[in-house]
Amino acid sequence: MDSFQDARILVTGGAGFVGGNLCRRLLEDGPARIIVIDNLLSSEIDNLPEGRGVEFVHGSITNDRILARLPDDLDYCFHLATYHGNQSSMHDPLADHENNTLPTLKLLERLKDLRGLRKLVYASAGCTVAHKTFEAAEATRETDPVSLHLDSPYQISKIIGEFYGNYYFARHGVPFVKARFQNVYGPGEILGAGEWRGTPATVWRNVTPTFIWKALQGEALPVDNGGIATRDFIYVDDIVEGLVRCALRGTAGEIYNLASGVETSIKDLADLVNALAGNRAPLALQPARDWDRSGKRYGDPAKARGELGFTADVALRDGLARTIDWTRRNCRLIERCMARHAGFMRAPGERGTEDFRPGRRDD
């Protein structure tokens, strides 16, 4: 099977940034059915495309009634549901467990006896295996060891999901494929999406949309530790293509890095966003983040290229330009979502509120 034509597909977290883009791609192949399950905790229904066969279920995949109603004739599952992101998980580890670790286990338990299931693709995180360094980084490979000392409950949950997938593959034959994401950016990532999750990172979700929004407002971009940290930025269309290839070409039980293989410093990202957005405000230099020890990291896409035929085709400059254009066209939606949390985003020292430190994005 080289497409999803007439396929029956489950997408958990399908109203999220990556999930919505994935659903649009799946619709191009003419599937028989796409079931989207999303509790909208960190996502927006606006991201979900309309199309023939798309069914939306508002709720968590941990809900036993929702699980029981899933059809037994699923062909594919993309498990993207998560608790976004590092800082939210540090603020509330129990919420992270409930919305990150537990959904993976309950989903695997429900799907373990579906003999017609062709592939279950799990969205994992490259930061779980990245070497903890601010020195020169080496590209992380799928075979690199996993540290026993991770930086956040989010990272712990993501690697535990891989462990559960390995167990259900070995014990029950669940065709589990692990897709390790790098820093995904692009159209559809909405600042302030979903519900308040305890920290300003609810709004300032990730570095790229935060930089773009602030640059378009003519504000100074907040740069931690001189911007020396590095990341592997991959455009959302490329990550979606990687997920598609994991499902159609991936080998059950295997791990694939969905990465560009290009290391970019946060300082260089900030300068490029400012140049593309026409922002002349100087950078706002801030202290290093005390929790983030994997300062420099990027992924090695060689295995995905060799086994899946996957490459990240969109260069950072082009992807940022497209994302800036999308942000300009969707300002009202973004403002509405950000405004939802205004009561929490107060100045430091106001009683009963979280400190509003706009530079503390989650990436």
Question: Summary?
Answer:
The protein is of the alpha/beta class and 363 residues long. It contains eleven helices and 15 strands.
Describe the protein's topology.
Elements: E1 8-12, H1 17-27, E2 33-38, E3 54-58, H2 64-68, E4 76-79, H3 86-91, H4 93-111, E5 119-125, H5 153-172, E6 176-181, E7 183-185, H6 207-216, E8 222-224, E9 230-231, E10 233-235, H7 236-249, E11 255-258, E12 264-265, H8 266-277, E13 284-286, H9 302-308, H10 316-329, H11 331-339, E14 345-346, E15 354-355
Parallel strand pairs: 1-2, 1-4, 2-3, 4-5, 5-6, 6-11, 7-10, 8-13, 14-15
Antiparallel strand pairs: 9-12
Helix pairs in contact: 1-7, 4-5, 6-8, 6-10, 8-10
Characteristics:
single chain; 363 residues; alpha/beta; Rossmann fold; seven-stranded parallel beta sheet; two-stranded parallel sheet; 11 helices; 35% helix; globular
Description:
- The chain is α/β, with parallel strands linked by helices and 363 residues long.
- It has a domain at 8-188 and 233-262 and 299-316: NAD(P)-binding Rossmann-like Domain (Rossmann fold, 3-Layer(aba) Sandwich).
- 35% of the residues lie in helices and 16% in strands.
- The chain contains eleven helices and 15 strands.
- The protein has helices spanning 17-27, 64-68, 86-91, 93-111, 153-172, 207-216, 236-249, 266-277, 302-308, 316-329, 331-339, and strands at residues 8-12, 33-38, 54-58, 76-79, 119-125, 176-181, 183-185, 222-224, 230-231, 233-235, 255-258, 264-265, 284-286, 345-346, 354-355.
- A seven-stranded parallel β-sheet has the order 3-2-1-4-5-6-11, sandwiched between helices. A two-stranded parallel sheet has the order 7-10.
- Helix 6 (207-216) crosses helix 10.
- It is globular and about 55 Å long.
- The two termini are 36 Å apart.
